[in-house]
Amino acid sequence: MKALPSLLACLILPVLLALPARADIIVIVSAKNPVRSLSNEQAVDLFLGKNNDFPNGAKAVPLDQSEGAGIRDSFYRKTTGKGPAQMNAHWARMLFTGRAQPPVAVGDSEAVKKLVAADASLIGYIDREALDSSVRAVLSIH
After folding, report:
1. pLDDT tens digits, 31-77
2. Which pLDDT band, with edges at 50, 70 and 90, does 20 fall under?
């Protein structure tokens, strides 16, 4: 009977270690952008194509991380409650009606951060660990 807990530990521990850490997701803008913060609703409206401007009226261009990336799925689940299939359906409707284009997928957190840092009109989301002084966090998503 003592072997059962050891066997379970041997089976479960590798699975737990393989799971990604639950990291905070940060919505970012360039350090040159005057926007200091966004509400969850404002960010969602930008990333879902419902609004094309920052609260100050400046043009906002959202960037996505690569399709299938865990952070992308987490971002949309946490902010909109929608999974990947629901997001695809949303964008199919938006494209069909001509109301909006989906954000351009540019890669991982480092790629998003580099592009956002260079252009004050861009907005993206990254893992908190990638945050540095080249960009400004405007919303933290837990």
Report:
1. 999 999 999 999 999 999 999 999 999 999 999 999 989 999 999 99
2. very low
pLDDT of 88-115, one tens digit each? Answer: 999 999 999 999 999 999 999 999 999 9
Report phi then psi at 25, rounded to 5. -105, 135
3-state secondary structure the chain: CCHHHHHHHHHHHHHHHHCCCCCCEEEEEECCCCCCCCCHHHHHHHHCCCCCECCCCCECEEEECCCCCHHHHHHHHHHHCCCHHHHHHHHHHHHHHCCCCCCEECCCHHHHHHHHHHCCCEEEEEEHHHCCCCEEEEEEEC
Q: Are 20 and 70 in contact (CB under 8 A)?
A: yes
Instruction: Tokens 């951060």: give the residue.
Output: 113
CB neighbour list of residue 116: distance below 8 Å, 6 or more residues apart? 28, 29, 30, 63, 122, 123, 124, 135
Residue reference for tokens 């987490």: 74
Among residues 123, 142, 130, which one has the least CA distance to residue 27? 123
| CA 11 and chain centroid, separation | 32
Euclidean distance between CA atoms 14 and 24, whole angstroms: 23
